[in-house]
Design brief:
single chain; alpha+beta; Jelly Rolls; 2 domains; 4 helices; 36% strand
Length: 324
């Protein structure tokens, strides 16, 4: 059995044991997506402890240049969730369900080209659309590179979800490209099979959204897209009652992780690491300045994205150094 963090254990104590007898497995095939993260009527409802077998959306964007993005799936209501709780999202399974993935790059978006926030005098980068062939049995992706010395390259896939979110506060409506305190377009490769994502709740029912499957993505997503494709995904939802967090958190068998999403990048870095120190002090019993010292020496940082309207940094602390 893999180690669990304190938040997970608290969730188990307060929620899972009383819910096991009534937990259900649901199958939900979404028919349409939404372009924004916002409070709206749920498209499906589950109870804490329930498992949801579903998928992200495929649409014109994947089929042709200039096609419309299909949007995100949701919102999913988790019965009984309140803003005084934390939503726990376990990603039990995640796998591509198409044999192609698309990655685009070009003017207006990308870490190495001009955009409206970073104007430059040089010519814009050319628009490019790369179609990767996916081998779903071998779990590899192949890209033809006819203009390079190597004429093709094959690499292992690492499926992830770019977007996991709860509906943001009040009547706020955030475009699908945005990450923030509610989650959203984090573009963090650690949001993958086996991960647990913790999200703050701003509305009754939590109103969970998901989408933006990437078969593979490097740190930073520097060209502005990963290997974009549709995914089959299985979630399990839980609640940690009467506890709150300010920013998304992630956990896997190796690390506890905290996300910060804002511009400039340095402020995202600060937010993520402040949140990590707070997690160590509030849930693991470390004194603040000793936690700061340990994060300084043992922590690692991962760049989720440096191309979205807000940048995203994830601060990670190895679980092997946590109290048992």
């Amino acid at each position: 059995m893999k180690p669990m963090g304190i938040l997970t254990l608290i969730g188990l104590c307060f929620l899972v044991i009383p819910c096991l007898a009534r937990a259900e497995t649901h199958k939900f095939v979404p028919q349409k997506g939404f372009p924004t993260f916002a409070k709206r009527p749920p498209v499906y409802k589950v109870k804490p402890g329930d498992i949801l077998v579903t998928n992200t959306l495929w649409g014109d964007w994947y089929e042709r240049a200039g096609g419309a993005w299909p949007g995100e799936v949701g919102p999913i209501e988790i019965e009984g969730a309140t803003p005084n709780d934390i939503l726990v999202v376990k990603i039990l399974k995640l796998a591509p369900n198409h044999d192609t993935a698309v990655s685009t790059q070009g003017p207006g978006m990308g870490a190495l080209t001009a955009d409206k926030s970073t104007p430059m005098l040089n010519d814009p980068a050319p628009a490019k659309r790369f179609v990767w062939k996916l081998d779903l049995k071998a779990m590899t992706g192949t890209l033809a590179t006819p203009n390079s010395r190597m004429k093709s390259i094959t690499v292992p896939l690492q499926p992830m979800l770019g977007r996991v979110a709860t509906a943001p506060p009040g009547e706020e409506s955030w475009g699908g490209l945005w990450p923030g305190q509610f989650g959203g377009n984090l573009d963090v490769p650690d949001v993958k099979e086996g991960a647990i994502v913790y999200l703050p709740i701003f509305h009754p029912g939590a109103l969970f959204y998901f989408g933006d499957g990437h078969a593979l993505q490097g740190d930073g997503e520097i060209c502005s897209s990963g290997l974009e494709t549709a995914m089959d995904v299985t979630f399990q939802f839980e609640l940690i009652r009467k506890k709150t967090i300010q920013w998304p958190r992630i956990e896997n068998s190796e690390y506890i992780m905290t996300a910060g999403c804002v511009r400039p990048l340095m402020d995202a870095f600060r937010i993520a690491h402040v949140e990590l120190v707070l997690w160590l002090t509030q849930e693991y019993g470390f004194e603040r300045w000793e936690a700061y010292q340990l994060v300084s020496q043992l922590g690692t940082a991962r760049v989720g994205n440096v191309v979205d309207p807000n940048y995203c940094i994830v601060a990670r602390f190895p679980k092997k150094y946590l109290p048992k």
